[in-house]
Design brief:
There is one protein chain. The chain has 13 helices and eight strands. α9 runs antiparallel to α12. By secondary structure, the chain is an alpha+beta fold.
């Protein structure tokens, strides 16, 4: 039994395998629409991604990071955009679990299967404090999956400025508008559009300081997945779709080169092609080991010695490896794989877009790791 068998589905009974098959079937349509196909968006909810980290008292699991990485990677083999949205739906549910309990009850009052979008880095908009809460106005960008979200988490600077951490606010669908701005070269199906909020009141119990996310919930009674700090797992969530994309790219490349040369020959009989296959598959497996190790640390490492810098390092290095794999496959596939009809060119664009995310850049991850090594006296 694989870890993907363990992701707890919603009562609809949709499996991760079902969602992955739908994502692959509608990948081209999602890309053309610049938003997930409605059937795929529904399958992500049915497969249990939004509820994966929802507190048990509201009907959630809460699940593990190892389970999530494996399930997201499976989705990514057919559609990177679906995998990206699934990972973030789970991650945003985990963030919302840091809201005051009354806010959580309002968000999940009717059940845990609530798709949540977010735009919390960088903060934007204007926040004014008033009795019982805040008045919010502004525009936020790159809210992945927002077309199919019921709620959104937005970060805004605290009123009065200063060095205080931004405030994160939870808004229901009726309180924000979606602007069609997503026209990217890769991850096109994520629908990472902009969000507009105009003079909306947000009660204080639906807000929190972003510092709360960085620290994790302190209560010993809280589930393990809610106690770990945001920096420990943020890059891991963004890296998991790349693992699936690289696997999908390898499968697509193998299908192309295995079709033969037209003169009866099979390109997989060629020594150089065999080396591309061997090296690429081995490097995908190595990146998988890095991400699986990071997930296991997030699930089991002692809370007083959490290896945040190591997880940041491993996620960034794993993604660099996976991008190199897909780049090699794309270049060795020749003009055939560049056709719009071939999925390899989509995976190639997707992993390059994904690797540009700030959480996956090697330079800050390397700096954080170097500081941790110095601090430990190694």
């Amino acid at each position: 039994m694989t870890l993907t068998d363990h992701l707890a589905p919603s009562p609809s009974g949709v499996s991760v395998q079902d969602a992955a098959a739908l994502g692959a079937r509608h990948a081209a349509e999602s890309e053309l629409a610049r938003s997930l196909h409605p059937a795929v968006a529904g399958a992500l909810t049915g497969a249990g991604f939004p509820r994966h980290f929802v507190p048990a008292e509201f009907g959630g699991v809460p699940g593990t990071f190892a389970e999530l990485v494996e399930s997201v990677a499976l989705l990514g083999e057919g559609c990177t955009s679906a995998a990206w949205c699934a990972a973030l739906q789970a991650a945003h549910g985990r963030l919302a679990a840091h809201l005051p309990r009354r806010g959580q009850a309002e968000l999940w009052g009717s059940g845990p299967d609530v798709p949540i979008a977010a735009a919390v880095v960088p903060p934007a908009g204007e926040l004014a404090e008033e009795s019982g809460g805040y008045r919010l106005t502004g525009r936020w960008h790159l809210a992945s999956g927002v077309d199919h979200a019921d709620w959104i988490l937005l970060a805004a600077p605290e009123p009065g400025g200063g060095d205080r951490s931004p405030r994160v606010l939870a808004l229901p669908r009726a309180d924000f508008a979606v602007e069609d701005t997503w026209r990217n070269s890769g991850l096109r199906g994520t629908g990472s559009n902009s969000v507009l909020v105009t003079d909306v009141f947000v009660p204080r119990y639906r807000t929190m300081s972003r510092d709360v996310l960085a620290a994790g919930r302190p209560e010993e009674s809280a589930a393990r997945c809610h106690r770990v700090p945001f920096p420990l797992v943020a890059s891991l969530m963004f890296a998991a779709p790349a693992l699936g994309a690289a696997r999908g790219a390898l499968a697509a490349w193998t299908a192309v080169v295995g079709r033969g040369t037209g003169d009866g020959g099979v390109l997989l009989d060629d020594g150089l092609t065999q080396q591309v296959l061997a090296r690429s598959s081995a490097e995908i497996d190595a990146a998988h080991l890095l991400l699986r190790g990071a997930a296991e640390r997030a699930d089991h490492a002692p809370l007083d010695r959490l290896p945040v810098a190591r997880n940041m390092r491993d996620a960034a290095v794993a993604v660099e490896m996976l991008v190199a794999v897909v780049e090699r496959l794309f270049r060795s596939g020749g003009t055939r794989v560049q056709s719009e009809a071939e999925p390899l060119q989509r995976f190639w664009r997707d992993v390059h877009a994904l690797a540009g995310h700030g959480a996956l850049r090697l330079a800050p991850a390397a700096a954080a790791y170097a500081r941790s090594v110095v601090a430990e006296g190694v």
